[in-house]
Amino acid sequence: MRWGGPGILGASARHAALALFLALGGVHAANAQAQDIGTIQSEILTLDPDRLFAETEVGQRLTEQYQSERDALIANNRELEAELRAEEQALTDARKTMSAPEFRAEADAFDAKVRSIRAENDQKVRDLERGRELAPLSLMRMAEPILVQVMRDTGGKIILDNRQVLLRADVIDITDLAIARVDAEIGDGSGLESEDVNDTGSGLEPDAADE
Predict the structure, then answer these.
(1) Phi then psi for 117, rounded to 5 degrees?
(2) Are 45 and 158 in contact (CB under 8 A)?
(3) What SS3 state is found at 168?
(4) pTM for the predicted model, two decimal places
(5) Per DSSP, which regions of the chain are E strands?
(6) How far apart are CA 67 and CA 174, in angstroms?
(7) Which residues are paired to 159 by β-bridges?
(8) Burial bucket for residue 43 (CB in 10 Å: 0-12, 13-18, 19+)
(9) Cβ neighbours of 62 (radius 10 Å)
(10) How far apart are CA 10 and CA 21, in angstroms?
């Protein structure tokens, strides 16, 4: 018998080699597909919320909006301050032509006006800062369906805030992928109606990292 001839053993070996080739080809194709969609495969994923907010078009728009509103409020306060100073000076100048009761009444009215403006301004500042604090949550609400889809594509079971993870492998960080998909799907988010950001219920379980 010639061991190198086309005997039964040779045919079996060829079939085995062909099966192995096809199996490896299938694995290679699966890996190539995962790379094509820019995803990884992991049940545990991490996300950097700060980068998601800072680097997405939505986050940048919300930041610019806050800055614009803040600048407008500062400018308005300066105008009010100038008006009040002028009014105070006019009242001081008119004092010599007024009786003491008349001046006291005018002064009290002016003080009440200043207190009212200050209280209104303080409320505007609080509202502005509250909006700034809630902006990242607003982004997460808009991005939630996209993050859920990323979980499905990667086979993920949970997304952890990477600021709460002591040790991690960079291969499970989906921040870059999330930024790209959020930008691609919702742009700056200006055309979306933001949900009530006080409703923190989410299928993403934001506190899961603490469990």
Answers:
(1) -65, -40
(2) yes
(3) coil
(4) 0.66
(5) 44-47, 158-161
(6) 29
(7) 45
(8) exposed
(9) 23
(10) 16
Q: Based on C-alpha coordinates, what's the Rg of the chain?
A: 32
Per-residue pLDDT of the chain (211 residues; tens, 9 = 90+): 443 444 433 444 444 433 433 333 333 333 433 444 455 688 889 999 999 999 999 999 999 999 999 999 999 999 999 999 999 999 999 999 999 999 999 999 999 999 999 999 999 999 999 999 999 999 999 999 999 999 999 899 999 998 888 776 656 889 999 999 999 999 988 877 544 444 444 445 444 434 4
Closest CA to 180 of 47, 30, 33: 47
- Torsion over CA: 113, 116, 117, 118 (sign): positive
Three-state DSSP at 152 gives helix
Size (the chain), residues: 211
- Enter the tokens of residue 114: 């200043």
Q: What's the token pair of residue 59?
A: 């986050």
Q: Which amino acid is at 182?
A: V
Residue 114 backbone phi and psi in degrees, to 5: -65, -45
Structure tokens of 64?
């610019």
d(CA 33, CA 30): 5
Other CB atoms closer than 10 Å to residue 29's CB: what's the count? 10
